[in-house]
Amino acid sequence: AAVRRAPRVALGADGAYSAVRAAMLRRVADRMSHSADYLTHGYKELTIPAADDAGAYRLAPHDALHIWPRGAYMMIALPNTDGSFTCTLFMAFDAEGARESGAPEWHFDALRTRDDVSRFFAEQFADAVPHMPTLLDDFFANPTGALVTVRCAPWAAPRGAAHTALLGDACHAVVPFFGQGMNAAFEDCNVLANAIDAHGGVAACDWPRALDAYQRARIDNANAIADMALENYVEMRDKTANADFLFRKQVAHWLGNTFPKQYLARYERVSFTTIPYAEAKRIGVINERVLDELTNELCARNERSLDKIDVEHARRVVDKHFPLDAATADAAAATAAKL
Predict the structure, then answer these.
(1) pLDDT tens across 20-44, in order?
(2) Cα–Cα distance measured from residue 25 to residue 27, given in angstroms and rounded to the nearest whole number
(3) Dist CA 111 CA 139 (whole Å)
(4) Could you give the CA distance from residue 316 to residue 311 in angstroms, rounded to a whole number?
(5) Taking each helix axis from N to C terminus, what angle separates 277-300 and 243-258, rounded to the nearest 10 degrees?
């Protein structure tokens, strides 16, 4: 016979389409905000197989992300240890989404036959096609997936004698363009564990206070990485083919090397430190102002070269936006040492 037990605490880590979140919404609908925002674009996984049985790679460099930016859509390829690459095509589902993106001709609904797919890839990704011998089979065998951003608040709610809380994609699913979905979930676990320890430990925990502390520490950061992931989609599919954008990235890397105690690019803050996402987003705005001051005139004059950067001018700009005191220097140096 089935046995029902009411737990003291129920933690829902059941993904973007969380049943636990749905149950919370039914129970506290008048006190819980929730949104699931779908992009008008979807994705399809494809494959570049290894070049031979020894696991040789077909693309170089073989230890990097490859991007084919096309403005309104893109394809990427990520290397695997067996010599293959997992490719993903991101583009609009239908004509309406394609028009919104500025490329009305190409969208998933327009790729209905093998001839359609062959023509599209020959025109848009001609250099990749020779490396994709199973392209047509993969395209029609693999589903077209959706891209969703989930936001909700609160993440924790009482449920009779038990308490319920959400973790990971169940409360903050993000699109994959910053590569932080799993990391964000790990951060949830770390913060929740610390909150439990701070409020009595598992055996004697004050669960309402612990769960509230957890969600207060995490919701703003989850919203920040959701925003940055959406921004990165536009950056990857469109801006990576733009000369001004590439020069700004070059200057940002130079600034990080030249002024490591003050300047750290947003990508490095997000991907290689434990700086909270909301703080990384806030500082990222300041980073852009620094780059504006150092690159806008050079780009306008078509002088995109690090040789044109005046180091002393750059130092003044960085000092203005990131004034350096002893505490800041120590913290920045510790962060840079970890990279």
Answers:
(1) 999 999 888 788 999 999 999 999 9
(2) 5
(3) 10
(4) 9
(5) 120
Q: Which residues pair with residue 86 across a beta bridge?
A: 47, 78
Q: Buried b vs exposed e over 165-174: b needs ≥16 C-beta within 10 Å? A: bbbbbbbbbb
231 vs 175: CA distance, rounded Å = 10
**Exposure of 237 in the CB half-sphere (CA atoms within 13 A):** 22
Asked if 64 and 92 count as a contact pair (C-beta separation under 8 A), the reply is no
Token pair, residue 103, equals 């490329």
Token code pair at residue 260: 């490591």
pLDDT single digits (tens) 254-307: 999 999 999 999 999 999 999 999 999 999 999 999 999 999 999 999 999 999
Amino acid (one-letter) located at 270: V
Residues 77, 43 contacting (CB under 8 angstroms): no
Amino acid of residue 31:
R
- d(CA 173, CA 151) in angstroms, rounded, equals 7
- Placement of tokens 């049985």 in the chain: 53
Residues 6+ apart with CB under 8 A from 119: none
- The 8-class DSSP code of residue 94 comes to S
How many whole angstroms separate alpha carbon 75 and alpha carbon 128? 10
Burial of residue 242 (CB within 10 Å: 0-12, 13-18, 19+) is middle
Q: Does the pTM of the predicted model rise above 0.70?
A: yes
Q: Decide if 39 contacts 176 (C-beta within 8 A).
A: no
